[in-house]
Specification:
The two termini are 35 Å apart. The longest helix is centred in the C-terminal third of the chain and has 19 residues, at 360-378. Helix 5 runs antiparallel to helix 16, helix 7 runs parallel beside helix 8 (141-154) and helix 18 crosses helix 20. The chain has 485 residues and is α/β, with parallel strands linked by helices. The radius of gyration is 25 Å and the shape is globular. It has helices at 5-16, 21-26, 30-35, 39-49, 68-77, 96-104, 115-125, 141-154, 157-170, 175-192, 203-213, 233-241, 294-308, 314-329, 332-335, 342-357, 360-378, 397-411, 436-439, 442-458, 473-481; strands at 54-55, 108-112, 133-136, 195-198, 217-221, 245-249, 274-278, 288-292, 389-395, 413-414, 416-418, 428-433.
Length: 485
């Protein structure tokens, strides 16, 4: 065996990546631009200009990360914290879990250490043979990772198939007979692993795909994490019309960052079965959550009543509820992960209490970000956002870096560089998440608006995009694993 095989493969992946050393040289300050300014750079800019930078990289929409109440709550918990090896051993629905249950309108809550864990568990648990899975092309990469986990589990049967094929070959069966024998079982295996993407927020496309492949599970987001646009309610209606289960990632919409309701799900004509969220956005916490909704359990009760041909008793409904909840709690990621920290839970609870005791923060955020979006659009700049998260699409990565650097150097506006695989091919740009602190200061609001407009007018973009064969290795992996992407 060639000992260099592993690094041969690694080298191939590196060669596919746009972030190579030669690109740093070609595009000048690319390295610093990708990594962002450090604290010394920020202090220097503020000293030279006599005003604070506008850091729009964090998703702290309500500006509550560093409130004293949260810091004090976390510090007070330090002497009391007990390390728990698995969430299985924690109390089910008490403390911050109970609060999240009320906010999300959930029947049961699973608190995790990240939104990644939440999406991996939710997608893997609901992906099964012969159950089609439909996902918006703009759903988060962690959702797709969950599909890949499920696909690997479901394709275990291929090993059995390969063994049978080997036996056929050894039995001197003709090639024509082998093809005839394997055709039907192979087709069945491939059809059983059905993952289908639908065009972004396109309910007609979703409708057509479900008509073709049958009812299953629909995955989407409440507030999409690149462009900042909201889920169209028709998507939920289509899912309900075809009796599909609906899963919504509420990471960026939880706590009411873009609507008057605390979740997007509350605004929909047909409700989701499962909600997932990273609590590191509006909640500023290193935690994630899965909310199993009443609609999910109701479908379980209806299924059992049809199976038994009679109504369930109250006791039977409770057992059915617990058995379904415990099925999720037995997922490998949940069982073999460390339990969420009591310190993080205390900080999250304090931030939620503060937010609900100060509702003007949400009101100001919603009002001012609407004003900002209108001003930017009136200047002729393409902006799909319907939220505080605003993505300025530039096209190529070099042009996006130039746009980002201009905003930093001329206006002290620090944005996040976004490029494939986080965006579509040739759809790179800069994402800016406006927060309450910016919205509560008129000078900062106007500086933000004028900076975006000025940068867009003054910079001449050549839009030199990467060729299709120069994709990030992560992107190429995603194309390989996820059908229809």
């Amino acid at each position: 065996m060639n000992k260099n095989l592993l690094f041969d493969e690694i080298d191939k992946q590196i060669s596919l990546s746009w972030m190579q050393e030669k690109q740093f040289v070609k595009y000048g300050e690319m390295r610093y631009a990708l990594l962002g300014y450090n604290d010394l750079d920020i202090a220097k800019w503020e000293s030279e200009h006599g005003k604070p930078v506008l850091d729009t990289r964090p998703n702290d929409y309500f500006s509550i990360q560093k409130i004293s109440e949260a810091l004090e709550a976390k510090i007070s918990q330090v002497p009391k914290e007990i390390h728990v090896s698995s969430p299985l051993f924690q109390d089910w629905q008490v403390g911050v879990k109970h609060s999240l249950k009320q906010i999300m309108g959930s029947e049961c809550i699973m608190l995790l250490k990240s939104g990644t864990e939440a999406n991996l568990i939710a997608t893997d648990m609901l992906s099964h043979k012969n159950i089609p899975v439909y996902f918006d092309k703009h759903t988060h990469a962690t959702t797709r990772c969950g599909f890949n986990l499920a696909r690997g589990r479901m394709l275990e049967s291929i090993e059995v198939f390969k063994n049978a094929l080997n036996r056929l070959e050894k039995s001197n069966t003709s090639e024509e007979d082998i093809r005839r024998i394997i055709q039907k079982p192979l087709l069945k295996i491939l059809e059983s692993v059905g993952f289908y993407s639908f065009n972004h927020n396109d309910y007609d496309d979703l409708d057509e795909r479900i008509k073709k492949h049958g009812p299953g599970v629909v995955y989407t987001e409440g507030l999409f994490s690149v462009y900042g646009d909201l889920l169209k309610p028709e998507i939920a209606e289509i899912a309900k019309k075809h009796d599909c289960s609906l899963v919504i990632d509420e990471s960026h919409s939880l706590f009411g960052t873009a609507t008057s309701d605390l979740t997007i799900n509350r605004t929909l004509p047909a409700k989701a079965d499962i909600l997932t969220a990273s609590l590191s956005k509006g909640g500023c916490s290193l935690l994630g959550v899965i909310g199993l909704q009443p609609e999910f359990f109701e479908k379980r009760y209806i299924y059992l009543e049809k199976k038994l041909n009679r109504p369930l008793t109250d006791a039977e409904r409770e057992r059915a509820k617990l058995s379904l909840f415990n099925l999720f709690r037995r997922h490998t990621i949940f069982v073999f992960s460390n339990a969420p920290s009591d310190i993080e839970e205390s900080g999250l609870q304090a931030r939620m209490n503060f937010l609900f005791q100060n509702p003007e923060r949400r009101a100001v955020l919603l009002d001012k970000t609407k004003y900002i979006r209108e001003k930017i659009r009136n200047a002729g700049i393409k902006l799909l956002s319907e939220s505080p998260m605003m993505f300025i699409e530039i096209g190529s990565e070099p042009d996006s870096v130039e746009f980002r650097n201009y905003l930093i150097e001329q206006y002290g506006i620090i944005g996040s560089l976004y490029m494939p695989p986080a965006t579509p091919i040739n759809g790179a740009g800069v994402r800016l998440c406006v927060n309450y602190d910016i919205c509560s200061d008129n000078e900062q609001v106007e500086r933000f608006i004028y900076g975006i407009i000025d940068a867009h007018k003054k910079l001449k973009f050549d839009n030199i995009c990467r060729k299709k064969n120069e994709l990030y290795f992560l992107w190429s992996q995603r194309r390989f694993f996820v059908t229809g992407f």
